[in-house]
Specification:
The chain has 308 residues and is α+β, with helices and mostly antiparallel strands. The protein contains 9 helices and 11 strands. The protein has a 5-stranded antiparallel β-sheet with strand order 10-9-8-7-11, with no helix packed on it. Strands 1-2 form a two-stranded antiparallel ribbon. A two-stranded parallel sheet has the order 3-4. The chain starts with a helix and ends with a strand. GO terms for molecular function: nucleic acid binding.
Length: 308
């Protein structure tokens, strides 16, 4: 199992009911073992996007089987409550009714597989904060960029899977405390044991869509989603309060993401801060960052510390 190879020390300590070591890369993520002995982390969830062709029990069961095949079988599912769908379209209402009032075929499948379906309280999306934030992040840019594009099922599926990869590529915390290590822990490490990689492709975002082949249009859509999402993610990492509150200064040795323009999909330029330059107010204004390609000076506004 991938987790056993990458996080063997952490799993061994948790099996002995010991906490992970202070120098563990998972220390700040509150790791634990579930009932099946699988390593989990508190508050960090992978994103799985599925497309259904209709709202029948057969289609829903097929979707669950695809999910189990890729992520493993789950004992519990948590969903929004029906009242959160007030004013929603008929398709969403139909899907909700199918789950809350399953027919014999669906209820029999859930019972046979030992699956329990739970609903959060009405009008309380905060109870589903862990998945709400991830789903919102994916749907927001998917809707605004793909919009009314005329895509085939396979093309749309490709876009959705690429969005999954984008969300799983985001850096969470340093992979180690070694100042020479420029790698970060990502959600992908818990799924495949390493960071996500993408096929190197030319930038198509500035080209006219009508001049592109169909597969190039799909690539262009994914690149547009990447550009929008990774900028918004970095913006969230930079807490702006109009200087009303003084934040903790960066320190030498911190691993940070460099804000660069036109980065390829899944590419997060990371670097270790090697020197800081303070202004007359003792606040850091400029930092020197060591990257894989050398050392550079960057304004503090062009550097983001990792979220954990």
């Amino acid at each position: 199992m991938v987790q056993g190879e990458v996080f063997s020390a952490e799993i061994r300590n948790l099996q002995c009911q010991k906490g992970v070591l202070l120098n563990s890369k998972l220390k700040n993520l509150n790791p634990f073992l579930d009932s099946d002995g699988v390593l989990r982390v508190d508050g960090r969830l992978a994103v799985n996007i599925e497309i259904v062709s209709d709202l029948t029990s057969e289609a829903f069961i097929a979707t669950l089987k695809r999910f189990f095949g890729r992520r493993g079988k789950c004992a519990k599912f948590y969903s929004d409550n029906g009242k959160t769908f007030v004013g929603a379209n008929q398709e969403i209402e139909g899907l909700l009714k199918l789950v809350k009032e399953p027919d014999e075929k669906l209820s029999g499948f859930l019972s046979a597989e030992g699956i329990e379906w739970k609903f959060i309280p009405p009008s309380a999306p905060s109870f589903g904060g862990l998945w709400e934030a991830a789903v919102k992040s994916a749907k927001y840019h998917l809707k605004r960029i793909v919009g009314r594009s005329n895509l085939t099922y396979e093309e749309f599926l490709t876009v959705c899977f690429q969005i999954e990869g984008i969300l799983h590529s985001r850096p969470l915390c340093p992979l180690s405390n070694n100042v020479d290590d420029l790698n970060a822990l990502t959600p992908a490490h818990f799924l495949i044991g390493r960071s996500m990689n993408s096929i190197i492709e030319p930038n198509l975002t500035d080209l006219n869509e009508s001049a592109l082949k169909r597969w190039q249009r799909v690539t262009r859509l994914v690149q547009l989603i990447w550009n929008k999402w990774h900028r918004s993610y970095l913006s969230e990492l930079q807490q702006r309060n109009k200087w009303q509150f003084q934040r903790k200064n960066v320190r030498v040795g911190d691993l940070a993401v460099l804000i660069e323009d036109n980065m390829p999909t899944f590419k997060w330029p990371l670097g270790r801060i090697t020197k800081i330059y303070s202004g007359n107010d003792t606040l850091i204004r400029v930092v020197k960052v060591k990257t894989q390609n050398g050392e550079y000076k960057r304004a503090i506004s062009r550097v983001c510390l990792l979220p954990v």
